[in-house]
Amino acid sequence: MKLLEQLKAKGIAKVTITFNGSGDSGGVDGVYCCDKDNKEVKAGELEEALFRLGRAVIDNYDNIDFNDEGCFGEISLDVQSGKINIEINTRYVDYETEHKEARVEDYIKPCISDPG
Fold it and tell me: What element of type H or E holds 88?
């Protein structure tokens, strides 16, 4: 029996596979299944196959890149249609540069007392 048929037989309508990673490694964090009323359903013996599905999506989708700061996201499977939606959140480091012009006197005057 095919995976989608097995999921339907268990009453599973939606599967969410989460992933996370950085540096140059990452992978599937978890598999969560729900019925048509959005109540949690245990995948049981299908959990390993869903982990493998998540890993296959990660390995074959070009924009999931764990290099540097990495990424995290979700792979959502609509069991009825067989369609997968991939949400990727890419991490990155950013910085802002500011330039200011000042005169030395603006900083020296408060530090030097007048012996006057």
Answer: strand 83-90
How many angstroms separate the CA atoms of 16 and 113, rounded? 68
Q: What is the pTM of this model?
A: 0.77
Q: State the Cα–Cα distance between residues 106 and 59, nearest whole angstrom.
A: 58
Segment 7-43, tens digit of pLDDT: 999 999 999 999 998 877 788 999 999 999 999 999 9
Q: Which residues pair with 71 in a beta bridge?
A: 21, 90
Taking Cα atoms as reference points, which of 112, 82, 77, 90 lies closest to residue 22? Answer: 90
Return the closest-CA partner of residue 29 out of 66, 3, 68, 61. Answer: 66
